[in-house]
Amino acid sequence: xxxxxxxxxxxxxxxxxxxxxxxxxxxxxxxxxxxxxxxxxxxxxxxxxxxxxxxxxxxxxxxxxxxxxxxxxxxxxxxxxxxxxxxxxxxxxxxxxxxxxxxxxxxxxxxxxxxxxxxxxxxxxxxxxxxxxxxxxxxxxxxxxxxxxxxxxxxxxxxxxxxxxxxxxxxxxxxxxxxxxxxxxxxxxxxxxxxxxxxxxxxxxxxxxxxxxxxxxxxxxxxxxxxxxxxxxxxxxxxxxxxxxxxxxxxxxxxxxxxxxxxxxxxxxxxxxxxxxxxxxxxxxxxxxxxxxxxxxxxxxxxxxxxxxxxxxxxxxxxxxxxxxxxxxxxxxxxxxxxxxxxxxxxxxxxxxxxxxxxxxxxxxxxxxxxxxxx
Length: 375
Description:
Radius of gyration: 24 Å
Strand order of the largest sheet: 1-4
Mean pLDDT: 85
Helix content: over 70%
Number of domains: 1
Order of helices and strands: HHHHHHHEEEHHHHEHHHH
Number of strands: 4
CATH class: Mainly Alpha
Largest sheet: 2 strands, antiparallel
CATH topology: ABC transporter involved in vitamin B12 uptake, BtuC
Number of helices: 15
Low-confidence stretches: 8-21
């Protein structure tokens, strides 16, 4: 009996079972145009999952979530994701270390506040974007040393921005509209006549900014600008030899990163805090953003969201730990435990998985594409 004459009963019974198991597969999804071949989500299942996620985020969550969940979890998560996204552009894609992210957030918040306080009738969206432009100017100014120094020296140079902004917010009275304590507040937020005071409205505002900036950043890093950033990150000398201009690549990374972080800072002050002082954007905020990028994944758009979710959710889980386990853990111990866990995870990811949680998620997806086959 030849192979052609072999009865097909077993294969026919096995194929339907394999078809049921192989759901995450691009078989049969043919690309016939260049735009289809270069799209962000090439697999149909990914596009369907993203559409479902956006539908849940824009429709279901505002209707079904409580005020506490929106104010204490989701809004901080979205704003910190946006800030981590901006920092990831600089650190993850361009390889330039920055410890001044809190300063850029502060500049964005105070510039947006001055636009609202000094310009009558200034639209809220324009004020938030103006905060990003103000942070861009500062980011480019403190990014100039990156043309000559790198590594630890650049980190110290960007750290100087943090102390300079802290001093300016406390000493320059016109920054805080002549407030003696440096504390400012905003109220009565509205867009085109619609109030943005409810938690659901503020959540939708933050979500809209995050979606737009994430999509824009994804397209930037896929283009020639992003490739020049990654070339500078991998080997700046070789990048200069092949024709990439170091000044243009590095300063553009500082500009884009600072703009996104500045908008995030304006949202943090206007939408989340409502009333703030310079201490709200201290050096601890810069370290938190750096932790998000390292834990979430350097050079990854999704890593910003994973890192922000981890930083926001972990302290809440530690606060609930005494109720779940029956142990008596005070607030100081819980906060110290969170810092210890952050430090241990940073060391773990730097040694075992430098690309962070985003890489683990990508590996899981690749295994799912091959499952149930072992190879």
